[in-house]
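Backbone Fold Data
Goal — fold tokens
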Amino acid sequence: MGQFFYQFFGIGWQGFLDIALNSYILFRLYVLFRGTNVLRVLFAMGIFWVLRQVAVSMGLIVTSWAMQGVIAVAALVIIIVFRNEISSVLQTRDLKSFFWGIPRYQRNTPVNIIVESVYELARKKIGALIVLPLNQGLESVVQKGIAWQGKLSKEMLVSVFWGDNPVHDGAAIIQGDRITNVGVILPLSKRTDLPSYFGTRHRAAVGLTEQTDSLVIVVSEERGKITLVKDSQIYDINDSKVLEKLLVTHAGQDSAAAGVKKHARELAVAAAVCLVCVTGLWLSFSRGMETLATHTLPVEFIKSDQNMEIFSSSSSSATLLLSGARPLIRSLGPDRITVKLSLANTVPGTNRLSVSRSAVTLPPGIVVKNIDPSVIEVTVDVPMKKELPIQPLWTGRLSQDSIMTRAVTTPEKVHVIGPRQVLTQMETLFTEALSLEDITTSGRLAARIALHPATIRLEDQNKDKVQVEYTIQKRETVSP
């Protein structure tokens, strides 16, 4: 599978997994930090990184150095200046929202219940702070709060802000038909142009809308007045119809469908951008860190028929040209690489086996560029034992007045083992070449047994020599 990916895409399956994992991590960071200043600084860092890569490719040394410094400083700015926002995100209690949850678009909200509840609170002069999030999450903006997940009703919403309720001073967050959190602390606005009669609730409402796209309803405890804040715009509500219209525009059924589609498009675009960015980073790092290495390794032959035996091979090792990231290549040892050839489809005799990339086992991230040799000839057969006589192999000539009358080897016969096809056709073994040129008298000499072809061997490997005893006589001369 890894070779398939590499052949068609130039990336192994490990690369695909690496890109997918880091793309998801980047996408999760976007989901968690969107709408915050942290994301804006990260986006700026990404632009500087791209500019630095362009400067490096153009050979602009000072510019690339300056960009690298800006990126380093920006990383410190994120950690120091925005530590509170980062801490708010990392302290998310709901693991689902941290790892795979996505803030939902405000939809299916019972607007009439909210309108009735707000006017009931205003009539009784009960202070209230109601938040309806839209697209952006609130985890990194708001603080504290108690998870509620109660079904939205007039009685439920009024009771949350009742004076004797311990959470009445905080905000209630409504998503869909649920009150998801109560007692939530909102960020206060630092605007100086707000009316003097605005209390903490009003400033908190304005402060939240400055940082998110939420809609916030404020009920004044002293005056019993209703105020709606959206996009930092303040609306004094004197008519329930106006309040209902504003809520429907923000979270009603008609706008929900379009909002959901917009929300989905935004997330899809973000996911695609994350994938493109991570793929570019991966290609940049992998190409820049790719290096080559050569390893010569023994070839392991795997027998499917235990009766068959390998008698010879054109090569017992293979030289591999490997490619991969420099750290992986440096840590790669011969003990982590194997070359295995199967003998399942071989027949008795000489077979040509292709040494393909599938025969090589490598750690993830390493790719085979070349194999030498690409083909190995292997001789296999069922082994056979046979007793063969030994004859001396004489070369040269005796002197004209000498004649050899007897030549005997001790032992006269030996047992050899070899392929059945070869031994069935052999009748005799010979010694190594023995020269007659220097022989003038009878004697004895030691000679090594010549094993031809190389696919045969002696049963007793230690007895590879024989004694050759010979008799030399003078030729009889005939007188004229």
The first strand starts at residue 128 and ends at 132. The longest helix spans residues 253-289.
